[in-house]
Write a structure and sequence with these properties.
The structure is a homodimer of 433-residue chains.
Chain A: E1 7-12, H1 16-27, H2 29-36, E2 40-46, E3 62-63, H3 66-70, E4 77-80, H4 88-97, E5 101-104, H5 107-124, E6 128-129, H6 141-147, E7 153-159, H7 162-173, H8 178-187, H9 196-199, H10 202-216, E8 226-227, H11 235-243, E9 246-256, E10 263-273, E11 285-292, E12 296-303, H12 307-327, E13 349-359, H13 364-374, E14 379-386, E15 393-400, E16 403-404, H14 405-417, E17 421-430
Parallel strand pairs in A: 1-2, 1-4, 2-3, 4-5, 5-6, 8-10, 10-17
Antiparallel strand pairs in A: 7-9, 7-11, 9-10, 11-12, 13-15, 13-16, 13-17, 14-15
Helix pairs in contact in A: 1-12, 4-5, 5-10, 7-8, 13-14
Chain lengths: 433, 433
């Protein structure tokens, strides 16, 4: 049952991802037609710089007026790959109003204000698909929304930012410092000229918000996600991790509380054991663990960014949305029925690895141990060693048992006030055990 | 938009998987209702032994007449977890005729005669979903059918049978022999009393047929899959693998030919480098690599069998099928438009690791090398060593470059005929490099 009127697609943005989407739509037109059940036609491409030569794209399709394009009324699907909050949000909601479904790769917008988009899609009976927004080509949104729809997800734990993973991998394997590793990432194109969104964890936090919302069938916004970047991770942290049989990764962690009544979402660097599969995720790759009540532990691994992988995810969504359109149906919309509250970071139960510079004299360990006890934090191991320079200072490395983050940070605050504690060299959470 | 008339589900089979499906349908009824948009109700359970006590299932639902159950006419979805070819095939097609969509975990039937099922579903406008048929809870069918629908899959390479992976893992890590490892697998419940389907590779071959068909949008039947089991893998093979920096895994490999005009599907033990992520898949876990033109290399990992994981996959499909039913739509059906032929094993391009027992005298290596050259097989490395017992024999280990499997097996046949070759101790393919 093949119909001949083509489905019309408008492309908003024609950068690295958009141009690859347009290219594959042309080179694989026959495959797409067979898989959808109707041809798809690129009906317009909105760009900022119309003069730029774009190989393989008919110049007549190029426009700078994205709003007019999404308002045309004959567009079946809008692919939004411009990113950012505005004008993306206005364009997407306008597209819904004028009859189009939307495929988006816009993690920032979905994390900031996914509800507006979901509600607009629902109101007008359109699809909103966004596999490409999290972890590039790795199928993750669809498995969570659909494959695990009959299960209860308890935890999502993953490396969802390739830039920071590349930097930490270089610090680990080449012993590079943070700045040096960042420079290498920039030179190789893994980091942008302004790397803030990546290294400060904003990108990963947006993805954590999206994943948590879908995994737990609730609403989680970017502001709900505790966020720490990797700019303060040092070579010494990597060395300490090695001594523990660990490495350091920037993790996005979404958890359902043990009582099931709340959830948490956070992004921060953490030590994980070398035996954990995430420890061996190298360079700019992404990998995400999903723990579900019936399914057990699943892992999804692949390239988390880049033009081609992201285009693959966009085109998979395009096929689904077009098929829905032909069937007169829509795919799964927002599922936020649990309305679970998002608890603050202080409620998260985790472990700390703390390096202290202390005075090298008797009684210090007892003093330090007392502070932990007063805050209800139980100590797992302590390593104490005098400095090689014999300067009257020693270093103390404490690894705690699991405790609420608030108790742990309260402990650190109190430790800083001790006369015998000269400084807190590093604090890092330990995960994945 | 919540409707109150429940969707009616018939369960065929109430063993390890079926009982877990029934249990979760009861304990998580509210979640399923919210995610589907209507309640689902277990309307009948067909079993062979009706007298058996089944906790949590209303005895009034139990029947031995599966045919009458699927013919009732008020059933929305039939879940088939009885396995085997008949009566499963007849029950599924009858279910389609009488108005039901089907969720199945039946890999043997899908590999043997998926076409009959697909065609019946299509003819009656029903859904046929079967995520649980391959790799248990690991979302694999849906990512291949939907997430990668806009991409071109070139290769699927995976560990899809937990029993054999457990056995090979034990042989590798504990130095156990095959029989000993099989006994342990049986004792722990990883192997069935009659382990033939697993250890001879039939189970993995069925999964390879299903995966190849979906990945390449063509039809691949069980008979098209080259199949070798693990019963002839020895401790010596594992030891040889270790010397090469490899381990031995039973792999399912589906490949598109370099010219894109044919495909191959095969299951056999193979050496893979320890650095390959599949090498570290332990115990009864499954993992599958998918290589696609745009997406690059993706990996999916998780528990490949067991009641709960399989039930998770079944219930994910149940939610999707129920949602389709409510929308008056169907999900993706068979996509076999490429009609790519399946080439025989002889056309597969791979590498061999061959251990020969040879006479310990000059000229043997030259003779052996000549045989390889005559068959157009280029040698990568040769290791030659005299036996410790000085009995006039030596062993020769040859690793080839990539060559067609027919040339490789022709070489081995010719080697066997050489006077100086006393025996071929082992032949194993080398993959994943």
């Amino acid at each position: 049952m093949m119909r001949t009127r083509p489905l019309k697609v408008a492309l908003l943005g024609c950068g690295v991802v958009g141009s690859e989407v347009a290219r594959i739509m042309t080179t694989h037109a026959d495959d797409l037609t067979a898989r959808i059940g109707a041809p798809v036609e690129l009906a317009g491409v909105a760009v900022r710089r119309p003069a730029k030569v774009r190989a393989g794209i008919d110049p007549a399709l190029i426009t700078t007026d994205a709003t007019a394009l999404v308002k045309r009324g004959d567009i079946d699907v809008v692919i939004e790959v411009i990113g950012g909050i505005e004008p993306a949000r206005a364009l997407i909601t306008t597209a819904f109003e004028h009859g189009a479904s939307v495929v988006s790769a816009n993690k920032a917008l979905l994390a900031e204000d996914g509800t507006t988009l979901y509600e607009a899609a629902e109101r007008h009976g359109r699809d909103l698909y966004f596999e490409a927004a999290v972890a590039g080509a790795i199928p993750l949104i669809r498995p969570l929304r659909e494959s695990l729809a009959g299960d209860t997800v308890n935890r999502v734990l993953g490396i969802v930012n390739g830039t920071t993973n590349f930097i930490l991998d270089r610090m680990d394997t080449a012993g590079a410092g943070y700045s040096e590793a960042l420079d290498e990432a920039t030179a190789l194109g893994y980091a942008e000229a302004d790397p803030t969104a990546d290294v400060e964890g904003f990108d990963a936090a947006a993805k954590a918000a999206i994943l948590a919302g879908i995994a737990f069938h609730t609403r989680v916004r970017l502001d709900d996600v505790h966020r720490e970047g990797i700019t303060e991770v040092t070579s010494a942290d990597l060395a300490s991790a090695k001594q523990m049989g660990c490495t350091v990764k920037l993790l996005a962690i979404c958890e359902r509380a043990a009582d099931g009544r709340s959830v948490t979402a956070r992004v921060h660097p953490a030590m994980i054991p070398l035996s954990h599969p995430l420890a061996s995720v190298r360079e700019a790759y992404n990998a995400v663990f999903v723990e579900a009540a019936a399914a057990g532990q699943l892992m999804f691994y692949g390239p988390g960014a880049g033009g081609s992988p992201t285009a693959s995810a966009v085109l998979g969504d395009l096929v689904a949305v077009c098929r829905n359109k032909l069937a007169g149906a829509t795919g799964p919309g927002e599922s936020a029925y649990t309305r679970l509250p998002v608890s603050p970071m202080g409620d998260v139960v985790t472990r700390y690895h703390i390096s202290l510079d202390v005075a090298d004299k008797p009684g210090v360990l007892a003093q330090v141990a007392t502070v932990f006890a007063e805050h209800g934090v139980s100590i797992d191991t302590v390593r104490q060693k005098g400095r090689a320079d014999g300067g009257g200072e020693a270093s103390l490395v404490v690894v705690t048992h699991r405790a609420p983050d608030a108790a742990l940070s309260g402990t650190v605050e109190a430790l800083r006030k001790l006369d015998t504690v000269r400084g807190v060299a590093s604090i890092m959470r330990v995960e994945g055990e």
